[in-house]
Design goal:
The protein is about 60% helix and about 10% strand. The chain is mainly alpha-helical and about 325 residues long. Helix 11 links the parallel strand 1 and strand 2. It is extended and about 95 Å long. The N terminus is likely disordered.
């Protein structure tokens, strides 16, 4: 961790950039910071208000959030992490060095540490790794008025209030989900169980694959999906914005697979890195090309007798390549 990154003698351009950037939309801030080295971006972000900096780091589109956190002063980094959503906290923590992870983890409050531990315990690319633990739940015997008062108290500490999850007062099992809109229009004296729709919500499990969860969102047109454990107790909620990121990630992976390119390859990578990653695919292609060449050699006498056949060889090869690409595209799609 850099504890003295931001100095008083830093160029005025840094302070000016910070003031201007903080007033922009968060995606625009992310786009501005992404091309910078982590140290440069941290120098600007360190001058943001903590809440604004947390909004920036909450964006999955930020290329090197972990590197940026490591370049910030320890106290500032801890404050920003504490203000971030729990699921994004976990994403960033996975990429931090062991030493930095320990320092920042110790600075979080007990509730945040517990939530972070739980999220980090789930494998990557599962619903458990995607979900947030910052949701609103209430016992089924609470009235609508009691629940609305509870929401007013906790709203600022919750990532989502799209729905309120109704729990069994004794077992804490998930019984129903009620939208905030329906809650507001319900009679104040009604209990949550009376106000909620008479059907169980569509749920997923912590170990469900993220692609499976994405298909579930698409099929049922969901905005949020509760995640329940084996005892049907609510452990988290997967949000639609996380699913959009999953869809983009999976589509990118499929497109790269179509061309035999590794998922982490970038234009800025060295020639050696790119060649090493692509070599297995190129070797396989060369092997099949040698097989084709050996077959052609077996018919060399026929080609000598009918030279017109040689003219058709590149046509057949081209048509075969195009047909193969089309088949791969359909298969990947």
């Amino acid at each position: 961790m850099e504890n003295n990154l931001v100095h008083a003698e830093e160029p005025a351009i840094v302070a000016g950039d910070a003031v201007r950037l903080a007033e922009q939309h968060v995606p625009d801030i992310v786009e501005f910071l992404n091309p910078m080295a982590p140290e440069e971006a941290a120098a600007i972000l360190a001058r943001f208000p903590v809440e604004r900096a947390a909004e920036v780091l909450d964006q999955p589109g930020l290329d090197d959030a972990a590197g940026l956190i490591e370049a910030l002063p320890e106290e500032k980094a801890a404050a920003i992490l504490a203000a971030m959503s729990a699921d994004r906290q976990a994403d960033v923590f996975r990429d931090l060095s062991v030493a930095t992870r320990g320092l920042l983890f110790a600075r979080l409050d007990a509730e945040s540490r517990e939530a972070l531990d739980r999220l980090l315990s789930y494998p990557e690319n599962t619903a458990g790794a995607l979900m947030t633990t910052e949701f609103v739940s209430a016992p089924a015997n609470w009235t609508v008025a009691e629940t609305l008062e509870h929401i007013r108290k906790v709203e600022r500490t919750r990532e989502t209030v799209y729905a309120i999850y109704v729990l069994d007062p004794r077992t804490k099992k998930l019984l129903r989900a009620i939208s905030l809109r329906k809650l507001i229009t319900a009679a104040p004296h009604q209990t949550l169980l009376q106000a909620a729709a008479d059907r169980r919500p569509i749920v997923t499990t912590p170990l469900a694959d993220q692609e499976e969860v994405a298909r579930m969102f698409e099929r049922y047109n969901l905005v949020a999906a509760p995640v329940v454990d084996d005892s049907e107790r609510l452990v988290g909620v997967v949000m639609v914005d996380d699913i959009v990121d999953v869809i983009e990630e999976e589509a990118d992976e499929d497109m790269r697979a179509l061309g035999g390119v590794t998922r982490h390859e970038e234009l800025a990578d060295s020639v050696w890195t790119i060649a090493r990653a692509r070599f297995p695919w190129l070797l396989a292609n060369m092997f099949t090309a040698l097989i084709a060449a050996s077959v052609i050699r077996e018919f060399s006498s026929s080609i000598e007798r009918m030279v017109a056949l040689a003219v058709l060889m590149p046509v057949v090869a081209s048509m075969g390549g195009n047909a193969g690409t089309q088949t791969m595209t359909v298969a990947v799609r």
